[in-house]
């Protein structure tokens, strides 16, 4: 019997899921709300470029063309690369563009008791003879269009973590954007165009990659005449791109020995324990180099957490070129504050006596990825499995309590493309009946073990659904083991 698979999203993750399911003999249908592939790369600000070196953000069977010579290609080149990949593996015919999935609902026989299962979906298998998913879709650009339903045997959610549902803070009544005479945008807005920003006083909120990129771009355009303000709560370590390149290069089997790994044996544990001072030392060396290279002290930009904490929680922010030159030159002003509210002509900032007069406020404060994921489920039972601090995913792809479904691209990592490719291969292998899942209890135990290891290095910065730089290789080894291959024999500098 032909098993039907629905893939939701045609960004990097959806393309990978599509490629590997096709390769394993399935005929997946990919629903994509936008008119094209690429997800985040198809709609971003002009200055966005890869912050992962391109050789680490590369499909294992489809290299970057020789014409792309830079280590960190810009978003246009990433898009061309993804288009070429999709064309090469003939993925386009499987994709239904401009089609938004409004909900998914699991149809089960009335006598099914999912709470008493020991095995995922009752059998531990990807497909069930009775359970199906109902996928409801609608024309993406016409909210009043008729809905259509598809019944499928398995759903792969690839809806992305850094897109669609903006995360903006709540404000007390009469202290939010409604009282502000200027314009309020989110970094994902299409109208974040140059004309809008030119000659305007702009304040960017946040301190992650999008925030510093947007602020640098605005400062570039407006110069010292209309300085841009970057307003943030917490400072993170920002590293120059050449530095990141060498960090990635230094990750090999030797560095892996220094860290505690989930489920490690006694000797591994002992070795990691005895070598742990090296890890602490290298973190301190990096911090000293950054403090020495950039005027962090002068601008009160030394983070309260260690560099190790930060890379262990998947927070990588590449310092835009000439960032501190712009600060020193007066085109960019850095402001740290716990909170702020809006007033008629700008922002009232906690600890400041006068309001910050501004014309445009751009929130670069991320996305509500958990909520987006939760909202796609019709059943409150499944919604509740997602809430909390992100979904506890076995092998960062399978929720032990949600059968016949996988989530790809949700776990952050230094190269989402690499990790998702490995997971897609592994998932397709499982779908083709070539591997099994452990019991639900074992999966949950495994998730907890990973969490413990990650917390050890991430400390207070810990967030779920992240495979840190240090554990990426080990994570791939686990996936490889599931598929019966030995990753240690493969040529893999990283992941
Ligand atoms: C500015 C920026 C820079 C980045 N740089 C890097 C980097 O250097 N290295 C790195 O590893 N990662 C980077 N990332 C992370 C990036 O998100 C991933 O690398 C990867 O592109 C994510 O792909 P995805 O397919 O999982 O998600 P997305 O790219 O978000 O794609 C999700 C797709 O799903 C579609 N979709 C969502 N909901 C629905 C629905 N209900 N119905 C139908 N379709 C739906 C969306 O339209 C979208 O096309 C960056 C992200 C951003 C925002």
TrEMBL record:
Keywords: FAD, Flavoprotein, Monooxygenase, NADP, Oxidoreductase. Its EC number is 1.-.-.-. InterPro entries: FAD/NAD-bd_sf, Flavin_mOase, Flavin_mOase-like, FMO-like. It comes from the Eukaryota. Its cofactor is FAD. PROSITE patterns: PROKAR_LIPOPROTEIN. GO terms for molecular function: flavin adenine dinucleotide binding; N,N-dimethylaniline monooxygenase activity; NADP binding. Belongs to the FMO family. This is Flavin-containing monooxygenase. It comes from Citrus clementina.
């Amino acid at each position: 019997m032909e098993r039907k698979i629905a893939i939701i999203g045609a960004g990097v993750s959806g393309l990978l899921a599509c490629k590997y399911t096709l390769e394993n003999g399935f005929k997946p249908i990919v629903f994509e709300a936008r008119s094209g592939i690429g997800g985040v790369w198809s709609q971003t600000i002009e200055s966005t470029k890869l912050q992962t070196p391109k050789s680490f953000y590369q499909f294992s069977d489809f290299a970057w063309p020789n014409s792309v010579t830079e280590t960190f290609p810009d978003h246009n080149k990433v898009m061309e690369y993804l288009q070429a990949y999709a064309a090469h593996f003939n993925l386009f015919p499987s994709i239904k563009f401009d089609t938004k999935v409004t909900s998914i609902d699991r149809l089960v026989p009335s006598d099914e008791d999912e709470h008493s299962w020991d095995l995922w979906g009752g059998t531990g298998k990807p497909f069930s003879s009775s359970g199906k998913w109902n996928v409801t879709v609608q024309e993406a650009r016409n909210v009043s269009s008729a809905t259509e339903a598809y019944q499928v045997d398995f759903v792969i959610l690839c809806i992305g973590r850094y897109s669609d549902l903006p995360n903006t803070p709540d404000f007390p009544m009469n202290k939010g954007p409604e009282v502000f005479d200027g314009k309020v945008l989110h970094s994902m807005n299409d109208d974040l165009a140059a004309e809008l920003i030119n000659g305007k006083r702009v304040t960017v909120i946040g301190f992650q990659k999008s925030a510093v990129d947007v602020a640098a771009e605005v400062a570039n355009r407006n110069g010292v005449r209309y300085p841009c303000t970057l307003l943030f709560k917490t400072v993170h370590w920002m590293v120059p791109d050449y530095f990141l390149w060498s960090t990635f290069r230094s990750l090999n089997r030797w560095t892996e020995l220094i860290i505690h790994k989930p489920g490690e044996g006694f000797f591994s544990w002992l070795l990691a324990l005895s070598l742990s001072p090296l890890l602490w030392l290298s973190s301190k060396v990096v911090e000293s180099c950054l403090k020495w290279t950039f005027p962090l002290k002068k601008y009160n930009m030394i983070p309260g957490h260690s560099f190790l904490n930060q890379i262990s929680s998947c927070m990588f922010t590449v310092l835009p070129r000439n960032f501190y030159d712009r600060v020193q030159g007066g085109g960019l002003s850095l402001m740290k504050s716990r909170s702020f509210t809006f007033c008629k002509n700008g922002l009232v900032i906690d600890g400041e006596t006068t309001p910050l007069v501004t014309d445009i406020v751009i929130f670069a404060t991320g996305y509500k990825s958990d909520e987006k994921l939760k909202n796609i489920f019709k059943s409150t039972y499944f919604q509740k499995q997602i809430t909390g601090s992100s979904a506890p995913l076995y092998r960062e792809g399978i929720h032990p309590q949600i059968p016949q479904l996988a989530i790809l691209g949700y776990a952050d990592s230094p190269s989402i493309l690499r990790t998702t490719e490995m997971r897609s291969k592994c998932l397709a292998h499982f779908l083709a009946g070539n591997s099994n899942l452990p019991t639900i209890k074992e999966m949950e135990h495994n998730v907890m073990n990973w969490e413990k290891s990650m917390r050890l290095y991430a400390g207070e910065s810990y967030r779920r659904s992240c495979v840190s730089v240090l554990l990426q290789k080990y994570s791939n080894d686990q996936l490889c083991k599931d598929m019966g291959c030995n990753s240690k024999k493969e040529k893999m500098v990283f992941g």
